TrEMBL record:
Aminoacyl-transfer RNA synthetases class-II family profile domain span: 51-465
Enzyme class: ligase
PROSITE patterns: AA_TRNA_LIGASE_II (PS50862)
Function: Catalyzes the attachment of proline to tRNA(Pro) in a two-step reaction: proline is first activated by ATP to form Pro-AMP and then transferred to the acceptor end of tRNA(Pro). As ProRS can inadvertently accommodate and process non-cognate amino acids such as alanine and cysteine, to avoid such errors it has two additional distinct editing activities against alanine. One activity is designated as 'pretransfer' editing and involves the tRNA(Pro)-independent hydrolysis of activated Ala-AMP.
Oligomeric form and interacting partners: Homodimer.
Protein name: Proline--tRNA ligase
GO terms, biological process: prolyl-tRNA aminoacylation
Tagged with keyword Glycoprotein: no
Amino acid sequence: MRWSRYYIPTLKEDPADAEVISHKLLLRAGMIRKLTAGIYTYLPLALRCLQKISQIIREEMERFGAVEILMPGVQPAELWKQSGRWDAYGKELLRFKDRHDRDYCLGPTHEEVVTNLIKGEVKSYRQLPLNLYQIQTKFRDEIRPRFGLMRGREFIMKDGYSFDKDDKGAISSYENMYEAYKSIFTRLGLKFRAVEADTGQIGGTYSHEFMVLADTGEDTIVVCEECDYAANLEKAEVLYNEVEQRKIDCPPLEEVNTPNKHTVEEVAKFLNIFPHKIVKTLLYNIDGKVVAILIRGDRELNEVKLKNKLKATEVRLATKEEVEKYSGAPVGFAGPVGLNIEEIYADQELQFDTDYVIGANKKDTHFIHCDLKRDVNIKDYYDLRNITVDDNCPKCGGKISLTKGIEVGHIFKLGTKYSKAMGATFLDENGKEKPLVMGCYGIGVSRVLAACIEQNHDENGIIFPLPIAPFECLLIVLNPKDNKVLDAANKLYVELKKSRIDCLYDDRDERPGFKFKDADLIGVPIQIIIGAKGLAKGVAEIKIRRTGEKIEVPLSECIKSVIDLKSKNNF
């Protein structure tokens, strides 16, 4: 493909509204353009990348026994009401009515549709196991779409679904897809980690996320340095050995004045104590009911754990008005003693100490010498906080570290959640009707492109791994007005195509420096440069984009050199 006939509208400067590296570079490299918030047009270079990603996914899905289908993007509300998710899914589900006033939604995922498909077709255990997938555009009405393709409203996704006759078969299908995903992300040339994860709105009994490791990632990953344990921060358990409460006497509760001291840091400094001796009282609205959550002052509450422990559908921090209504005090002074709330839950860590400082439900006032078991009616203790590097690995007790990652894949063992709700059953070997046991497997295809760039870039632009790159090599002619140089470049371009090397030919009449900047910006792994000086010696210059290494090779050996470089795939 000749650059002069292609559409690559590169930009010199970073767009003002782009925040993360991938968003900036996708725009600057002429790969995407914004239509409206969270919705983008994929231009030719991006589309080629997405097609290559999709092809690798298709090859691995076929190798692991999955079959491709294509389901509608528009879904009737009746299916979502059958599964119970029409109201539970939230505002991310874009709902609308047709001309007959019937309710529909744009599909953010397809569990309901595929379950409805199978329940009318699969009737016997002899038709199982079955694994179906699609690559399709999805829509989730994010409240704050941001970061370009990282968190858009419209995106391309591979979603797959397995159906088995029993739990043993479902586990086998899950493990099969786990291996398939490892193979996919390895072939894509990405550094990744599979981690234990929360099942979220999809549901099911357990799941794994596939994370591309990148310093700019939104997700925090917990990794053990001594075993193979890895988990999303939302999922990582905090475990304690059997530790008895400290055998010390706690003085009686005492009220103290703390003028204008709202935060943990302010109170700790004012009272000359450590933050871990303060208990934060957080008021949350849980499915319409306000409850109190207690956590150590130097810890962070994990809302996913809270939601799961209380089996909640919706969890949100109480409003300022709710805090004042139930505590009788401004924000920053709520405490568990005398609080006008029936249900109080505490993080399990608070069981192992005493003599805490708490809010007194009065402006500018705290209590000191609080013993939670003596002074507070706590309904239950749960693991409710984020794990830290000072905690031990939940699996082996070893040292853990925290790193950043970008979620690009997620697999779920769904069990019978959807099949029971929607009546998807089969007859087993004994003629008994049973619900299908399901699994669900997703890859954010467009997100993979963004995550790849977050992991592979430098100050000059994108550095694509060879399998994902829009082109394998970029042929640059330095002076197309020089007939000898142009003839040599044209001849080499024909030979590259004959050799089935995926090549973009920069035949534009532009300055060499301009072409070199564009070449580095779009990130093609191999650059071949034809100029008058090299031609006089009978050589072409080959530059490796990732390392910046440059080598001169005879024109007659240029094709062989490119093929050798491709085979090494050290990009």
